[in-house]
Please model this.
Amino acid sequence: MLQYKNHLEKLAKLKVKEISLIENVQTFLDKIELNKDLNAFNFVFEDALEQAKIVEEKIFNGTYGKLAGMVIAIKDVLAIKDKPLTCSSKILENFNSVYTATAIQKLIDEDAIIIGKTNCDEFAMGSSNENSAFGKVLNPIDKTRVPGGSSGGSAVAVAANLCDVSLGTDTGGSIRQPASFCGIFGLKPTYGRVSRYGLTAFASSFDTIGPFANNVEDIALILSVLSGKDEFDSTSKEIDIPNFLELLNEKNKIKIGIPQEFFGEGLNEEIKNIIQKKIDFLSQNEKIEFVDIHLPHNQYSIATYYILTTAEASANLQRYDGVRYGVRDKNQNELDEMYTQTRSNGFGKEVKRRIMLGTYVLSSGYYDAYYTKAQKVRRLIQEDFQNAFKKVDVILTPTSPFTAFKIGEKLSNPLEMYLSDIYTTSANLAGIPGISIPVGNDSNGLPIGLQLLANQFNEALLLQTAKKLIHKINE
Ligand code: GLN
Model:
């Protein structure tokens, strides 16, 4: 166990020398080594110890940043200058970043300590962290099970206390679903809240960067640091950045919508019962009101998501051609043979499946039938949410239809794997923020996550609600 419950407490203890930052970082490094079998990290940065020395000095002389001493692990799809950036793919196995992602630079500028890069599904495509050139990641709660994906390594790093906080990315659920499988908090911010500069693109109109933590306070604190307009990402938005941490304890009355479509067929009975019990319990509180709502187009979200994201992925992944990035097959004399062999050997099975699907839906004969139509449905899904948020402040759903499944269980059936995202993809289609919070365990002791969704750029209310619910549930 850690000697503190959140970053503010850690910082207070560092200031009075109750904790030594160097020892703290060394303990994390030792734990990472001890828990190597979890395979959460692709790369561990021993130079974190040097950083700890510098940051400790700053703490003592009063020149420290907001995240001073927070030990953070980074999903290996984000760029850090002169460090490897593999996206857990063979095609980038020899690639080092030439610049640092804006999100990471902001953490460094506030004196966070980066301890390593975490394993994930290749190019963030997957729901189980089994599609990785670095091998699968194990769930620390039950090592025969997956941690979820694609940010599985980041979720495990936090759940197994191998760092304080981690960053993941969420294109269709890749922060919220592993957070739910590992029993921790995971936030997907509004699209445009956090700069994507330096995030390896999977589906550019869906991709977001967000934190995993063991508590809501750290999520709020780190979100304030990550947020903001960035001249290097034209889709990042110029909008006020609230002090999310200070706003956590606001005592507003909140109205929570329960979308009936998220509690029907396919949802595991135990998850349904636990969430229903929480709702019944929370509705006794006069500050929380629950109402039934409808999101009628959610039934199309998986299909829409897999048409649009594969289309975008097929375009984004064209750049890995053996010329500009990473690995090149050197045995070919002809240029097109070199492309083919490089890509055939460099990409894994799931990535190839997505490129082929994406190329298909964009092909001239099928473009209107699939791509154009999916864009229209995306609009309908967005409108469902806009209508819902006229009636309620926040929407509550399960994060995933099931708890962590067995390693290998869904590998041979991609469609079943894709269904993991049935409750998460609509937030990415609509660009709204969502958080998964841990609310209990099933009869196998596996964590259950509850998802809260709010309107665009309303993370303050989202986090307040998360805090309120967790507080009441734990009372
Ligand atoms: N599991 C989803 C997929 O495979 C989501 C991935 C993500 O959010 N990066 O596409």
Summary: DSSP finds 16 helices and eleven strands in the chain. Residues 367-391 form the longest helix (25 residues). Residues 220 and 244 are 5 Å apart (CA to CA).
